[in-house]
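Justification of computing resources. Each target in the renewal requires a structure prediction run like the one illustrated here; the chain below, 331 residues long, is used simply to show the kind of job we budget for.
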Amino acid sequence: MPTSTTATTTTTTTTTTESEVETEDKAATESKAATETDAEPAATDAPTKLRAVRAATTGAGPVLLLAHGAGGSVDANFGPVLPALAATHRAVAVDYPGTGATPRATTPLTLDGLADELVAAADAQGADTFALAGYSLGTAVAVRVAARHPSRVTALVLTAPFARPDTRMTLAARTWHHLATAGSTPRDRTALARFLLPVALSPAALAALSEEEVEQAVRSTADSVPEGTPEHVDLVLRTDVRADLAAITAPTLVIATTQDQLVPLSVQREVAAGISGARTSDLATGHLPFAERPEEWQQLMGDFLGGFLPERTDGTHRTHRPHGWKEGPAR
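Resulting structure tokens:
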């Protein structure tokens, strides 16, 4: 969700080849503007109107789709771990409207729309199947993709997931949305950053910062808030993918951020419990694993995804499971 803070991490610069993925209108109307308490519409077979988005691709190998968080971007949320992921996969990611190189939306965002844009990026790469990794709001996008395209998803990684915000998360997100829409002056952005910092970082990470480092982190956060943040957070408030969880058949790893001050651990546990056969790994970090524990986060994702890489054996390919993997009950 919030972008990384320079006080707690060194941004990794990666070289990606960007290609604009122009998606065609598929008829069907966008959802009308919803209030903060409106539920996200359930997935249907009706086509969704898609936007022209900017997709970034790097690496070689099986396709790995990346879905970032609200108020973030591909670079901000996955930048520190992207080089390692790209060593074994062709990482394909799409910035949501109003962040990165994707224009800001003029209508409310929907999970169906973001999911379709991500799948369209895979289609543009000629990928019939793909692994999928989502972070924060991106986990809801990934869940929607996995539920709608079960035969295409080979593996699923969900970090700091939520199926629906609980009361605590809703209150925090409403404040976030209010501050994000209050104005764009330096004072407005600083006020937003001062709210986000203690919500995004773990108590231990925040306590370890000097006063000077705190101010540096506030400035960095204020300078990096994407213009599309209000629409992103509005979607957080309307998200409800509880009904999608039972439809997921892909091997799934849930990475729980145990010191998270934004997405409560109980909310994350509910996602793992709702997906049959899902494994859980705990990561002692706040809501920004890419800032606090990027190496451990990458290791968890890499070890799991590596278990589903095709192996060459006498000129053939086969898929193996990670050590200790147990399939969930058959549906």
